[in-house]
Write a structure and sequence with these properties.
binds dinuclear copper ion; 8 helices; Immunoglobulin-like
Amino acid sequence: MLLLCIVYLTGCGGMQSVLDPAGKEASTLAELFWVLFAGAVVLWLLVNGLFFYVTRLNTRSMSRRLAEALIIGGGIVFPTVVLAGLLSYGLMMMPEQREAGDDLVLKVTGEQWWWRVEYWPKGADQPIVSANEIRLPLNQRTEVKLTAAKVIHSFWIPALAGKMDMFPLRETRLALEPQRVGTFRGQCAEFCGESHARMAFKAVVMPEDEFDAWLEQQAAPAQPPADELAERGLAVFQAQGCGACHSVRGTPASGRVGPDLTHVGGRETLAAGTLPVTQDAFVRWLSETKHIKPGVKMPSYDMLSREELNALGHYLEGLR
Ligand code: CUA
């Protein structure tokens, strides 16, 4: 029993926990959880206490009037009042969950199985495109507009806010107000096909000035290859036609089918939370794509030589 408790309680912390909130919406939800949990514990004790009382302590049969009063009072009036109270308490928390400022809007599209991310600063006529990671300024209320390409997904960063479904041809909204700097984990929370479990992302919360500098850097085109190996990698990238599906701003690659790779080396994870961002991980991803993410559209490039894969991995990892 004790061991079981420890196993369960270790799940209550960390970067993907509802009970370790780091954002305003998540704090509200955690508060609601604890109030409902405390209410449930009190009711459980009350009902079991009564049961114990009538079966062990006082087993005399009660009068008909008292029995009827208990059924009407305890069985109808009491639960109606308690449940209505808890329901209104929960509903009162709702209105403020959705409102947000308009300094920055994030648009996230659920793809199979990755996240298309666009940052729209106020007044911008085109977005700053990224993928598989979102970054947010601390203590700012940022609006996130959600949609999906083909099937329904669900956008969920437990430490920051509740879930919100993403539908094709429809837009849903969420407001995120992170209150703690850090890196949190998000996960698709609606079954969306074979690699649903491999559809995660990182949410990085940064102080506002750091965030502004980061966003400016993201808006810039990709850095040119820094060394000979990276140049070789770029040549392989172009020869294999990677640019038909992926964009690397500042190069002819402008595909929109897959994730934007302009600053892929600066992200925390590769393949939507599946691998770390290292040269070796890029090589693994390129040569074992279908094993790492079953059902993925991207073909495996296992026909490339080790030398070509290394160069390609080196080039991509250098796109900071
Ligand atoms: Cu996307 Cu599950």
